[in-house]
Amino acid sequence: MSLALMALSVVVPATAGAHGYTNNPNSRAQFCKLGTAKNCGPIQWEPQSVEGPKGFPARGPADGSICSGGLGQFAQLDDPRGGSWPTTKLTSGASRTFSWWLTAPHATTSFKYFITRNGWNSTAKLTRAALDPSPFITVNNGGARPPNAVSHSGTVPGGKSGRHLILAVWDIADTGNAFYQCIDVNF
């Protein structure tokens, strides 16, 4: 092994090898993969790669770069597009199932689902202040490895109307990372 390769292996941190995205309802990344949303950049080929630091909302991607996981190559996901991302119709206060496709499942701490507050600005980049402070669904996985297709059911908060954004967060158990997916919905 050359000295340059040995040095590179010391500098580049190992990744979890876990990847996944929400596909019901479709996330921005999934809409890009399907070609429903255009001008998406490389996320159209990598909807499963929106990986950033875990610990949301105390830690994680910076405000304004939450939908991209803080990754510059996926910055198109942070662009609110004037509130014109494709949406999925939901019913406020109703039960809903959220599904992920995990291309590389990994030991999992939890899945969490946050939603924007009433009155949030759908034409601005997502910030923590725009979200209800607590997730409306939390599924603890205790470090177990989920299957490739995983679903979680829960009740969508009542009192929501119009356009909202759901942030789905998949916390990996044995790394410092999580996967982030933004889902545009309309009540």
From TrEMBL:
<dbReference type="Pfam" id="PF03067">
    <property type="entry name" value="LPMO_10"/>
</dbReference>
<keyword id="KW-0964">Secreted</keyword>
<feature type="signal peptide">
    <location>
        <begin position="1"/>
        <end position="18"/>
    </location>
</feature>
<dbReference type="InterPro" id="IPR004302">
    <property type="entry name" value="Cellulose/chitin-bd_N"/>
</dbReference>
<dbReference type="InterPro" id="IPR051024">
    <property type="entry name" value="GlcNAc_Chitin_IntDeg"/>
</dbReference>
<dbReference type="InterPro" id="IPR014756">
    <property type="entry name" value="Ig_E-set"/>
</dbReference>
<dbReference type="GO" id="GO:0005576">
    <property type="term" value="C:extracellular region"/>
</dbReference>
<feature type="domain" description="Chitin-binding type-4">
    <location>
        <begin position="19"/>
        <end position="185"/>
    </location>
</feature>
<protein>
    <submittedName>
        <fullName>Chitin-binding protein</fullName>
    </submittedName>
</protein>
<keyword id="KW-0732">Signal</keyword>
